[in-house]
Amino acid sequence: MRMVVLLIVAGLVDLSFPQRLSAVQWLNYLRNRHRPLMWAERLDDECPLECDCPASFPVAMYCHSRNLQHIPYVPSRIKYVYLQRNQITGIQDGVFDNATSLIWIMLHQNQLSSDRLGKNVFSKLKNLDRLYLDNNELTRVPPNLPKSIKDLRLGHNKIAKIQSSAFEGMYDLATLHLQANHIEDVGGAFKGLKSLNVLDLRKNKLKKIPYNLPEILHQLYLEFNHIESIPADFLTMYPNLQFVRLAHNKLTNEGIPPNTFNVSGLVELDLSHNKLKKIPTVSKSLENLYLQANQINEFSLSSFCDVVDMMNYSQLKVLRMEGNKISAKDVPAKAVYCLRLAVSIHL
After folding, report:
1. Residue 122 to residue 176: CA distance in whole angstroms
2. Which residue, among 191, 163, 24, 158, has the nearest Cα to 99 in the 3D structure?
3. Which uninterrupted H or E stretch holds 29?
4. Mind listing the UniProt keywords for this protein, alphabetically (predicted)?
5. What percentage of residues in the chain have a pLDDT greater than 70?
6. Roughly how many angstroms between the first and final C-alpha of the chain, as a whole number?
7. Relative to the CA of 210, which of 19, 44, 129, 329 has its CA 20 to 30 Å away?
8. What is the DSSP string of 243-265?
9. What is the dihedral of CA 217, 239, 222, 276, to 10 degrees?
């Protein structure tokens, strides 16, 4: 009688069940075998033991700050996965193949290295919108990134060179963070990024302003580099630029052609912590100008207003010039007409 029961049970159990699962899926099944899980299809409803999948937000998987060294199995229903602040050093191809509907992947503050990152880890994620890989050990931009990404963060890594094809076809990319790397030259890597609004290249080793930037670019951050000069047509080539930050470089007046910053679209300009001796000419439409910690020894009103009268005045609201070689007594009396909208002037 016992033998008959065993045969009946054996007939009911699908012996091919473990063979239909990947190695990661099968490992997760074994970890959860105490739960009433009978079929492979049920596995996709489970949340890995290492993570939290709240019922109030069933498409999210929270695995951050768990001392993880690997990426757990990601169910196909998941769209947002949070893996930041762990100890993940590598990702094999296929890890995300079951969850092709992913929209956000947060992998910042891990220990990822380029040599341990598969070439096609992200390639099948056609809906991926945000990918955060900042604060890792990457030495190059990951290959085969999805064309759908809009927000890509690669700051605080060890990237020294960007291949010309690194962002090829990423026409929807709007925000790109590459700060605090070892980048010396970017070539024409940004040329085809038709939607790029924000480009952050702070704290690198750039000696010149990148060329072939997207015309739509709105914010450009280049602080803490080694830039000594600016092309004469720099801002006329990029008429949509409103925020330009060039603090902590090696700029001199000789390296800035006349009227470089005299363009109507510019709203904020940061030239602090450089080697300027004179105030460069800026547009009357500029609202915020930062010139602190330079070597400026005169307050030239003509830098703000070519003509000073009741009808011609600057839109400047904030002017910072502390840490230079001038004081309040060096400001011409006519400044009250030219800078009549200023609400904050620091000398």
Report:
1. 17
2. 24
3. helix 23-31
4. Disulfide bond, Extracellular matrix, Glycoprotein, Leucine-rich repeat, Proteoglycan, Repeat, Secreted, Signal
5. 87
6. 98
7. 129
8. EEE--SS---GGGS-TTTB--TT
9. -170
The Cα 265–Cα 77 span in angstroms is 45
What average pLDDT does the chain have?
A: 89
Our CA angle for 186, 191, 192, nearest 5°, is 130
Give the pair of three-digit tokens for residue 345. Answer: 């002037």
DSSP letter, residue 214: -
* Residue 15 burial (CB count, 10 A): 8
DSSP reduced 3-state for 31: helix
Amino acid, res. 17: F
- Stated as kind and residue range, the H or E segment containing 319 is strand 318-320
Average pLDDT of span 219-232: 96
Cα–Cα distances in angstroms (integers) from residue 12 to residues 37, 39, 183, 234, in the given order: 15, 12, 61, 73
Token couple for 315: 């839109």
Q: CA nearest 288: which of 247, 316, 261? A: 316
281 secondary structure, DSSP code: P
Side chain identity, residue 242: Q
Global pTM value: 0.86
User: And the tokens for 106?
Assistant: 């947060």
| Separation between Cα atoms, residue 334 and residue 85, nearest integer Å | 55
Best CA proximity match to 96, nearest among 17, 172, 24, 43: 24
Among 126, 122, 121, 173, smallest CA distance to 151 is for: 173
| Alpha-carbon dihedral angle through residues 229, 231, 236, 242, given to the nearest 10 degrees | -30
Q: Where residue 135 falls among pLDDT bands split at 50, 70, 90?
A: very high
DSSP letter (8 states) at residue 61: E
pLDDT tens per residue across span 59-87: 999 999 999 999 999 999 999 999 999 99
pLDDT confidence band for 39 (50 / 70 / 90)? very low
| Two structure tokens written together for 326 | 């001038």
Class at the top of the CATH hierarchy for domain 50-159 = alpha beta
The tokens for 42 are 């049920």
- CA dist., res. 183 & res. 198, Å (int): 17
